[in-house]
Amino acid sequence: MPAEIVLITGEREGPLIAEHLRLHAPDLAVTHVTSRAALDAAFEAPAARRRLIAFTTNIVVPGRYIAACDCGAYNFHPGPPSYPGVYPESFAVWEGATRFGATAHAMIRQVDAGPIVASEWFDISPDWGRMHVATLAFQALVRLFQALAPKLATDDGALAPSGEAWCGPTRFRAEFERMCSVTPDMTPAEYRRRYRAFGEGPFRDFNVTIHGHRYTIESPWTDADLAREMGLEPPKPGGA
Q1: d(CA 65, CA 54)
Q2: Same structural domain, 109 and 80
Q3: Helices (DSSP H) in the chain: which residue ranges?
Q4: How are beta strands 4-8 and 50-55 bridged, if at all?
Q5: What range defines the domain where residue 119 resides?
Q6: pLDDT digits (tens, 9 = 90+) for 16-34
Q7: Residues contacting 58, CB < 8 A, separation 6+
């Protein structure tokens, strides 16, 4: 079994995922990192029987860290094989997709391109917003993780490829940012469509530039709303 798992995920998800892994391997060391700096620190010293798991993160893992994991590196991507890259739910909503999902895959140097080991698909409505689609994808991703967790925690061998292939263009942050920038002359219908796909949520990415000044368009969503939508409890005051 792996001696250590380096887990890249958010502050809320990390303890839950680590606890689930330890259900299958109580002595497993799980190093939870939430930033690139913490990831660098985790790989400062070489280690045997190390595995890396990335779960819904935008942190790009350097190829040297992937190569240093002799038990393999796996990513849980909150989108289907047809939407590799960042913010897959936003681009699916923008394009009017009727199918979406979640994907688990082995990591290679190229983003969202390694062999797929599991996926789950579901139908979506073209009039749904990004947050509802993202919630369903997150729930599907949790199910994929739960199914793969026993092997990830106890078996240092590679997960078997499912045979499914990636398709569609890989989306990067710069393209998402372009779509988040709206203009004052947009029609109400165009603005609503853009907001539903890219502005909805507590992230404050939506913006408008007027006379050379960039203004953030605030959403009514809060971090607590997001936690409830994703089925996670918001953090208690003081980090307790």
Answers
A1: 12
A2: yes
A3: 13-24, 36-42, 63-67, 88-95, 130-154, 173-180, 188-194, 223-229
A4: parallel
A5: 4-154
A6: 999 999 999 999 999 999 9
A7: 86, 173
